[in-house]
Each structure stands twice: as structure tokens, then as C-alpha cells.
């Protein structure tokens, strides 16, 4: 498994599981509480409906109480009592019809609302006659307009064997109950069913009649306050009334009753899903940001492993990984330098062996040739006019001997392995003496600009060789058109070392060095001159940087001149 996938899985586990678990627990807790609130609210509605039923029977009781007081009045005749009773009750909005009937069911006197046909419930009348108590009938519907009602019979005049027959409309009660339902929001599908003791029922808001089986009615009566039963996809909540065995039953589809809970769940699932999407995106981005620098580092290591030491990794972050990249880049630079040093040491070893051979095998013959030339020259000088051709040839031989000797000396200098003999010296004095000893052409002018600088540890002979070599190169660059050679010293902070140094500048106003050549002039055996080994500046660089822990820099502009800067370290106790 790739590191990216490991990071991704870890980020997902960290960023998804805790919030999802928390959301699920919160959803369950909130859903339970919300469901409880909904059930309590529905229970309140059912209770309010039961209270309206209670009020309904209280109103009936009030009408019967009026009837009792009229019947007990001793000042009125029986006919007057009947007329007064009907007149007193007929104005009540609950009553659809009022009648005085005898035991046979014959109407003694009656009042009925418009379009209401008064048909007596004979079984209810017989039960009243038998028990001599108020009897409440079952819920019924009027003919024609199907208004729900209930009959109540009261033995009002026992002596005359007459009974007060009331037909009471339930519309008003149902309307009052519907107001409780409409007071809330989202109760479009809620209804209240009012059931009598016989199982007949009527519901809001359409006044539809229903019939409950005795078993179902019995089970409803066993409901505890606030208890919820789910049947046929709807909830049922029962509230008993103080009426004659009547019940108020709240019914609502489960999907509507708990729609708020469902909406909450949908919202929570949507939020969890969105969280999952953002978490995956964020985790993927974070995993990529974490794994990419490591992948880049691995790629760099693989390149180094196959020998590509020029590989430098980009800085992609600003954290511990960037520190690791810096260390890796520094390591590759050091490895490359070490590799170059090893190659250079191999070359030095080869050059050293060659120089040793040349020094032994060539110098001795050169010495013999030099001596022979000297003797021949001495003989020729005895008769210079007659030996001019011989003297010119001897001069050529001497020049070539010097050139060959210089090649051997350059190779010996470059392969020098002895440690430098360091001593505190005034670089101003050393540079001045070298310049004074050099033979300048007439068209080259010398300038000094020496600052007060501390003495530094140098190998005088080696540093003389460096300065002499650079001065000679500057003179060669100005040989055609002349110019100015400037020697300057200054104390400053080193460009490469970032530490205190003494800088010696050797500047000319000669032909300059092209950039493509300036990059190679310190390489061994590189030369633009027809004669020479190409080791002069290589020796200079080795003496300054390797044997004196300094630095040599170059700044050259074609046709304007070249400046060499030699930076030599200053010890703290010399500051």
C-alpha cells in the first residue's frame, strides 16, 4: 500500500468516524426527545378533545337541570310546564330537537330545528322507562344533511309518565375540537375520533361515522394517558372523558405525525453525507500534501542511488519535511564535492606520478642539455659574428628548455602534497613585493589601494606564486592595448564563508573573459593559450581554497577587464 493511501485512510478514520458517531448519537437523542415532545403535544390535543366532550355533556346536564327546576315548580300547570320547558330549551344552539313524549312514544309537545326530522329511538325510551334514569343514546346522523347527533331521554314528569327527549347536535363539539387541531402546524392529516360507549364514532374534520368493535373499544379503554399505539400506519392516542363512557381518540399517519423526526433524520444524513464528501476531499488533499514531499524525497534518493548527484529537491513545505529536504540537498552537494575531490585526487595522484617521472627522467637530461648549451654558447661567443646562426639556435633551445621546465614545475606544484608552511604575514607587503619584482610593459600602469588589514596566516611562497600568476595573466590580457593593473585590499565578510576575511583584488582593464570560458578557467589542463599546461589557475585555486581555506572569485566583462578576488580567512584573535 502506498504512503498516500495510508495517510488517506488515517485521515478518513480521524476525520469521519468521531463526527459520524457523534452525529448518530446526537440524532438518536434529539430524535427521541423530539418524538417525546410530539407525543406530549398530541396527548394534549387528545386531552383537549376529551375536555370538549366533557363540556358537551355538562351543557346537556345544564339543560336537564333547567327541566328539573321547571318541573318542580308548583305554580304552573302541566301544560304550562311543557310549553315553558320547550320554549326555554329551543333557543340553545346545541339542540336539534326537543320533545315531550309519553310511555307509548306519542309526542305530547315538540320543537325541532329546521330540516330536522324527529324519529324516536324506541329502545332508548324503553330503557329510560325501565330504569327511570337519564339515558344517552348512540351517535347518529340526521336525515338529509347527515349532521351527527346524540339522543338523551330524561323522565321529567313521573306523575304524568312523560319524558323529555333531547336530540343534541355534535357539530359544535367537533368544531371546537377542530380549532385545537388547527392551532398547530403540520396537522393536515390529524383527526380526532369521538366514540360513544356503544362503539359508534364520528371524526373530524369530515364528520365521517365509524363503528368500533367491542374488542377494539375495550382495548382503547385500557390505554394509559399519553400511550401511543401504531395501527395500519397511523398512531392512536386515547383520552377518556367524564361523559358516559365516551372516548376522544387522536389518529394521524405515522409519516405525518413524526415528519419532523423524519426531516431531522434526512437533514442529519445529508449533513453526514456532506461531511463525508468534505472529509474525503480534505483528507485526500492533506494526504497528498503529506505524501508528495516524501515521494519527491524518495525520487531524489533513487536518483542519487544511481549516481545522479546533481539532483536538488524543491522546497514544497515549510515544516520538518522541508528541513529534511534541506539536509538531503546539502548531503548531495557534499557527496558531489566529495566525488569531485576523489576524482581530483585521482588526477593529482596521476599527475604526481607523472610529475615525479618527469622530474626524475626529464630534469636530469634537461640539466645536461642546459650545460651543453652553455658551453656551446661560450665557444660561439668567442666569434659572435661568425656564429650568429648558432647563437640564434642556442637561444631557441634555451627558450624551449625554460618552457619544458615550467611545465614540470606546474605539474609538481599542482600535485604538491606537503602541508603549507603558515605564518602571519602582511598581505599588503607580500603583494607589493611581488608587483615590484615583475617587469611591466610600458603601456601597463600599476596602481595600489591597500587598506589597513590584519595579518593573516599564509604560506608566503605559495601566495607569491598565486599573486605572480594572476599578475602575469593580467599583463598578458593588456599586452595589446595596454591598461591599468590595480591591487586592492579590504577587510569584509566573505561571500562564500560569511565570516571575516581579507580580500585581495587583482583587477585589469584588458580584453576580459567570455562567460562560457570563465566557468572553466580553474579546471586543470584548460587553457586558451597556445602554450602552457592549463594548470596555472588550477594551481591558484588549489592553493587558495584547499591549502588556505579561502575562496577565489572572478568578475569579468568582455572588452572591459577582469577582476580576481582572493578571500583569505582572518582568525578571531587577529581581529
User: What is the C-alpha radius of gyration, as a whole number of Å?
Assistant: 61 Å
Percent of residues in beta strands: 15-25%
* Uncertain stretches: none
Would you tell me the structural class of the helices and strands? alpha+beta
Provide structural commentary.
There is one protein chain. With 575 residues, the chain is α+β, with helices and mostly antiparallel strands. Among the domains are: 58-172, PAS domain (Beta-Lactamase, 2-Layer Sandwich); 320-413; 420-574, Histidine kinase-like ATPase, C-terminal domain (Heat Shock Protein 90, 2-Layer Sandwich). Helix content is 51%, strand content 20%. The protein contains 14 helices and 18 strands. The strands form four sheets. Strands 8-7-6-11-10-9 form a six-stranded antiparallel beta sheet. The protein has a five-stranded antiparallel beta sheet with strand order 2-1-5-4-3, with helices on both faces. A hairpin with a 3-residue loop joins strand 17 and strand 18 (561-569). It is rod-shaped, with a radius of gyration of 61 Å.
Amino acid at each position: 500500500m502506498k504512503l498516500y493511501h495510508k495517510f488517506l485512510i488515517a485521515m478518513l478514520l480521524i476525520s469521519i468516524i468521531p463526527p459520524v458517531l457523534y452525529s448518530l448519537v446526537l440524532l438518536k437523542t434529539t430524535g427521541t426527545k423530539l418524538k417525546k415532545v410530539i407525543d406530549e403535544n398530541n396527548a394534549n390535543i387528545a386531552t383537549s378533545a376529551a375536555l370538549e366532550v366533557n363540556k358537551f355533556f355538562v351543557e346537556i346536564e345544564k339543560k336537564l337541570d333547567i327541566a328539573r327546576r321547571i318541573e318542580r315548580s308548583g305554580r304552573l300547570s302541566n301544560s304550562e310546564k311543557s310549553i315553558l320547558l320547550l320554549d326555554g330549551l329551543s333557543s340553545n344552539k346545541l339542540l336539534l330537537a326537543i320533545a315531550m313524549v309519553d310511555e307509548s312514544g306519542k309526542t305530547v309537545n315538540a320543537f325541532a330545528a329546521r330540516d330536522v326530522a324527529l324519529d324516536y329511538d324506541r329502545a332508548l325510551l324503553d330503557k329510560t322507562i325501565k330504569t327511570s334514569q337519564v339515558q344517552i343514546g348512540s351517535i347518529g346522523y340526521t336525515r338529509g344533511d347527515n349532521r351527527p347527533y346524540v339522543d338523551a331521554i330524561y323522565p321529567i314528569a313521573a306523575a304524568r309518565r312523560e319524558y323529555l327527549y333531547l336530540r343534541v347536535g355534535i357539530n359544535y363539539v367537533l368544531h371546537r375540537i377542530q380549532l385545537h387541531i388547527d392551532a398547530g402546524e403540520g396537522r393536515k392529516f390529524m383527526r380526532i375520533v369521538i366514540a360513544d360507549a356503544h362503539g359508534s364514532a364520528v371524526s373530524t374534520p369530515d364528520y365521517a361515522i365509524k363503528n368500533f368493535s367491542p374488542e377494539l373499544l375495550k382495548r382503547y379503554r385500557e390505554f394509559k394517558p399519553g400511550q401511543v399505539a401504531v395501527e395500519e400506519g397511523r398512531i392512536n392516542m386515547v383520552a377518556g372523558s367524564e361523559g358516559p363512557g365516551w372516548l376522544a381518540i387522536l389518529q394521524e399517519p405515522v409519516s405525518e405525525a413524526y415528519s419532523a423526526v423524519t426531516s431531522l433524520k434526512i437533514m442529519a444524513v445529508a449533513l453526514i453525507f456532506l461531511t463525508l464528501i468534505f472529509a474525503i476531499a480534505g483528507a485526500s488533499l492533506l494526504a497528498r500534501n503529506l505524501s508528495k514531499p516524501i515521494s519527491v524525497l524518495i525520487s531524489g534518493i533513487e536518483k542519487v542511488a544511481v549516481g545522479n548527484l546533481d539532483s536538488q529537491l524543491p522546497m514544497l513545505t515549510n515544516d520538518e519535511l522541508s528541513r529534511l529536504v534541506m539536509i538531503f540537498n546539502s548531503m548531495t552537494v557534499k557527496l558531489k564535492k566529495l566525488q569531485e575531490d576523489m576524482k581530483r585526487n585521482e588526477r593529482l595522484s596521476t599527475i604526481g606520478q607523472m610529475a615525479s617521472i618527469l622530474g626524475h627522467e626529464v630534469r636530469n637530461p634537461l640539466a645536461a642539455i642546459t650545460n651543453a648549451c652553455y658551453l656551446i654558447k661560450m665557444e660561439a661567443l668567442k666569434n659572435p659574428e661568425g656564429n650568429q646562426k648558432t647563437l640564434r639556435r642556442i637561444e631557441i633551445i634555451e627558450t624551449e628548455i625554460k618552457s619544458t621546465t615550467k611545465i614540470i614545475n606546474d605539474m609538481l606544484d599542482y600535485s604538491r602534497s606537503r602541508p603549507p608552511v603558515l605564518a602571519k604575514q602582511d598581505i599588503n607587503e607580500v603583494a607589493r613585493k611581488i608587483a615590484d619584482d615583475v617587469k611591466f610593459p610600458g603601456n601597463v600602469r600599476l596602481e595600489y589601494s591597500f587598506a589597513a588589514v590584519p595579518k593573516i596566516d599564509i604560506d608566503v611562497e605559495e601566495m607569491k606564486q598565486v599573486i605572480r600568476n594572476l599578475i602575469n595573466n593580467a599583463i598578458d590580457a593588456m599586452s595589446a592595448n595596454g591598461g591599468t593593473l590595480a591591487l586592492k585590499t579590504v577587510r569584509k565578510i566573505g561571500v562564500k564563508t560569511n565570516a571575516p576575511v581579507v580580500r585581495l583584488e587583482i583587477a585589469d582593464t584588458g580584453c576580459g573573459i567570455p562567460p562560457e570560458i570563465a566557468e572553466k578557467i580553474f579546471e586543470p589542463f584548460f587553457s586558451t593559450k597556445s602554450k602552457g599546461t592549463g594548470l596555472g589557475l588550477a594551481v591558484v585555486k588549489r592553493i587558495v581554497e584547499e591549502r588556505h581555506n579561502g575562496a577565489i572569485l572572478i568578475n569579468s566583462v568582455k572588452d572591459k577587464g577582469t577582476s580576481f578576488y582572493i578571500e583569505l580567512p582572518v582568525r578571531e584573535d587577529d581581529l
